[in-house]
Sequence to fold (484 residues):
Amino acid sequence: MKTHHHVILSLLAGGVIVAGCASSPTPAELDKTTAEAVKASFRDQGIVKVSVLNTDETAKACSAADAAGKPLDEKMAKAIEEANLKTIKWPSNGKFLGSWQEGEKLAQSGRGLTWTDDAKTPNGGNCYNCHQIDKAEISFGTIGPSLYNFGKLRGVTDPNSPASKAMVEYTWGKIWNAKAYNACSNMPRAGHMGILTEAQVADLVALLLDPKSPVNQ
Amino acid sequence: MRLSASISMLLASALAASTALAQKSAIQSIEEYRAMLQDGNPADLFEAKGEDLWKQKRGPKNTSLEKCDLGKGPGVVKGAFVELPRFFPDTNRVQDLESRLLTCMETLQGFNAMEIAKTPFGRGEQNNLTALATWIAAESKGQRFNLPQSHPQERVSYEVGKRLFFLRAGPHDFACSSCHGQDGTRIRLQDLPNLTKNPGDGIGFAAWPAYRVSNGQMWGMQQRLNDCFRQQRFPYPGFGSDVTIALAVYLGVNSQGSVSVAPSIKR
Fold:
């Protein structure tokens, strides 16, 4: 007998997880039940609308791979990276590097886009939550790699030189859309998803690559 | 007391040392700070209030909760917490402690469960619900988690919870697993338990309800999950909604055999 998952109105708004009979549901049925539970459980609050749960193919494929406990196959990963690479918007004024001082402030800030923020809250970069950056800041997370000496280790002594071009572009691209280089990276797609503006991305590139930035001392 | 201020004070001396040493001693200082907190947990006050609320005649029906069935039969409190969430035949759904308490408050006492579910945390009957959850959890302190998985809906909840744990969404593509999917990582200086497996006695699922020093609030698991979703930039999960309960089943089953230390005290 087929397992049915009825949508019922329970005591509390929700209640979609109802197995009809004893047979085990298939993975596809469980995916469907999960989607129904999400639909029934979340509501708009403040500036956050339920529409932020309508994800793209990248998020869908990576979520499914994570839940299954096996990484994406190489072909799929490549296709996702290529699709994300195409989304990268390069600086319209041609300037990849902004102010590292502003970049440091952005890297410190984890604000913005929660339901307790208002629309006027400037979005932070959340960088220190996961990365070591300026060595003077000892409160840093470790989910991402250390970015201390980012430019120095990569031999960027003059970001405007032709020799630095590839690394400058990579740094911009990685911040704009991290999934262009690693399909299921844990890192947000700051430019692509509209978290940071072009000017803010330039400030972060400067924090990482400007030879005068504390990152490269 | 604001934790940020306390940490800054603790960090001030540490900053004088070399960076590597400074970081180690900063973490040690925070550990010492946490140890000092253990001397007196304000959760005790919520516990006492919760026990009173359980025995008090309240609500439109002027009845106590003493006949509430938390899964081990009417009125059985000891050991109930470490087996929740579980399936309840009378409501035909899997319920966690807080949603089960709501059911009892409605059926036994005549409260409007929907209304309480819609009340913001920390207000009115939500405060009472947290106190009740704190006392009930405390009655199982030191016991090992042993969530049932024999009912098909309990197994469906686990599988749905797992999918939700890995669900990347919102502007930042954050899932629960973004922060809680690997060993030995932290956000800023905050250590993160890996919740895809058993994180150990008193860690993760086994630490809530907890008193939070940084904001002076007592939080149940519903509020803990709610604030995780807030930080993930997700929309607002309904109180006692399927998503929150399925996630609790996933975390609770993963914590099988771990000792509950709730109510604990957190930064």
Notes: Chain B has two domains: 3-37, 41-267. The mean pLDDT of chain B is 91.
